[in-house]
Design a protein that fits this description.
Rossmann fold; 29% strand; 2 domains; 345 residues; elongated; Alpha-Beta Plaits; disordered N terminus; 16 strands
Length: 345
């Protein structure tokens, strides 16, 4: 097994433990991207990304076609960017692609498992491919399969597995060599609700218990919110946002305003002052509709007050709504639609 400045063990009863040290990686970020652009002919998949991804549980969020899979392929050293540079765990993806792949794990979205072999043989083979001796690889495979909930099924042929079981096999092979970083591409794809919950719990345990950095590529906001500490949002190949999830709920979001009458005129007047507003929120306490005003700074309060005074209508309530990840995602995507170039995944 390649020495990566860390040690970890999987006990015989399947309990995973790890004593990861920063070792050769120090406090460097998991991923650094500078000016990365990727095009396929006239189609631009990624448009000059500048991005630093910390060693954390990171959600790579975007709709299908946003550029997520293209970015993962570049970070794995499987394809070169048209322009720019990227490094993973300190290694250049273009010149040190083999070293990158030695030190990371990858769970692909597609169903790419060999159907005619057992889970134990396949995961053991992947461990050997990573440098473990045969005997150690078999033990490691058994322990990892126990951890992902496939202990009793590890000697069954993969072709008889359900979708959820196949996803677990893909996760097992991604972590069997104790990577410093693991890429998970749509890890809950095709899973039923119970299987999805269990997969998300496994991902959290990998990060929290083993200290492995995780990048989860998904278009499901709820999955990202459940397992990640940091979010990166792509849309049409462009970077929309990169920030800790912890700060999103405390950001100033929409302003919710309730007036008794002449809602349309109130909205029009706010819009004329440069404060976009719409109807569409319901005050849960009173069961009345509220006007949603985009919060762009404290000056919005003065605008709401002045419009209400000019119209001589009563301002019944005025409150802030914290932005959820969904609010942030929708807002960033809507703001970018006018200049979208049409990215591909």
């Amino acid at each position: 097994m390649t020495d990566r400045g860390s040690t970890s063990t999987l006990s015989l009863n399947g309990t995973l433990s790890s004593s990861l040290t920063n070792g050769a990686f120090g406090d460097a970020p998991a991923v650094e991207i500078r000016g990365v652009r990727k095009s396929f002919g006239n189609v631009v998949a990624l448009e000059r990304l500048d991005l630093t991804i910390p060693k954390a549980a990171v959600g790579l969020l975007g709709a299908n076609g946003a550029g997520k899979t293209t970015l993962l392929r570049i970070l794995l050293g499987l394809t070169d960017p048209t322009e720019g540079k990227a490094s993973v765990l300190g290694y250049d993806t273009q010149t040190d692609g083999v070293r990158v792949r030695e030190r990371v794990g990858y769970m692909p979205e597609s169903d790419c498992l060999p159907s005619g072999t057992t889970a134990a043989d396949f995961v053991g083979h992947m461990a050997e491919m990573s440098g473990l001796p045969a005997r150690a690889a078999r033990q490691r495979a058994a322990d990892v399969l126990y951890h992902v909930g496939l202990d009793e099924e590890r000697y069954r042929l993969i072709k008889g597995f359900s979708t959820g079981m196949k996803q677990r096999v893909k996760l097992a092979q991604a972590i069997v060599h104790d990577p410093g970083l693991v890429f998970l591409d749509e890890p809950t794809n095709g899973m039923d609700p119970q299987g999805r919950d269990e997969m998300l719990d496994l991902i959290k345990r990998i990060h929290k218990m083993l200290g492995i950095a995780v990048i989860v590529s998904s278009h499901i906001l709820e999955d990202i919110e459940r397992v990640c500490d940091h979010v990166v949002i792509l849309n049409n190949g462009k970077l929309m946002l990169s920030q800790p999830l912890e700060g999103i709920g405390t950001e100033q979001g929409d302003l919710l305003v309730r007036v008794d009458t002449r809602h349309d005129e109130f909205i029009q007047r706010l819009g004329a002052l440069g404060f976009p507003a719409t109807m569409g929120s319901t005050d849960e306490l009173h069961g009345r509709e509220e006007i949603v005003v985009r919060f762009d700074g404290d000056q919005v309060y003065d605008a709401v007050r002045d419009v209400a005074a000019e119209m001589e209508i009563a301002l019944r309530s005025l409150r802030k709504r914290a932005r959820s990840l969904e609010d942030v995602y929708i807002g960033e995507v809507e703001a970018s639609e006018g200049g979208a170039t049409g990215g591909r995944s």
